[in-house]
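Hi, here's the filled form for the chain we discussed.

Project: internal
Contact: R.S.
Residues: 288
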Amino acid sequence: MSASIETASGKDRRDENFPVGSWLIRRDLRAHVHAFYRFARVADDIADNPALAADDKVARLARMAAVLEGAAPGDDAPAAVAMRASLAATGLAPTHCLDLLRAFSQDATKLRYVDWDDLLDYCRYSAMPVGRQVLDLHGESRATWPPNDALCAALQVLNHLQDCVADYHDLDRVYLPERILAAHGASIADLERPRATPGLRKTIDELLDRTDALIALADGLPAAVVDWRLRAETATIVALARRLSGRLRRGDPLAGRVKLQGVDFGASLCVGLWRSAMSPPRTVPAHD
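And the returned structure, exactly as it came back:
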């Protein structure tokens, strides 16, 4: 028996800011969404494990990629084996999974980001493939990808802002772009303080301004989705993203983790269901 390459953090989809394969998703697709989430969770846990050296992380992630691409599965990478079975059952290519592994490998070796474009390039591999995978599972048109990409990038940046202190202290990883920090007279060292300095607060607010612009682009996603259940889920997530952005504007992630509350989830679900119900009936598009 081979030793597992997995290194579990104990987190699961219930610990996320946003619904993952909730009851809104079609019953026949939920298991595949959960398999994808588990795959992504395992890869993320490897990349974020402070006890592993960077080259060990990269090797483990490469093993997951090899299993997806046809290597003998063994018993060392169960999440990758399950994901491979899911891809075979749904007829989807491993492209989005491999993109995620690329991002997590980058996490193992890249600790700083220069500017907004550098950060968005990371989101292209770390976040956008998540939504694309779910859209492809539902047979949605690739016309949904641009607003999906905006939404997923927004969610990623919001998560970076939530976890900016833990990422720095635990992993020496900082996603706050250095040029934006410098433009406001802030520095990475400000993350050592118990509360945000004026310059760091301005940095956070600029990143939230940019994120809100992404959320505005993402607002067109629900109307572009054919499946009414997925339309409701995406509308719920857009509403949650807006609420989390607002909480981060009012809160200080250095003083304590800023997170969504029960009222946010309830109100956003109502918005999602309402938007789905109010959208005109649509026909299934020709798949790309």
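Let me know if anything looks off before we file it.
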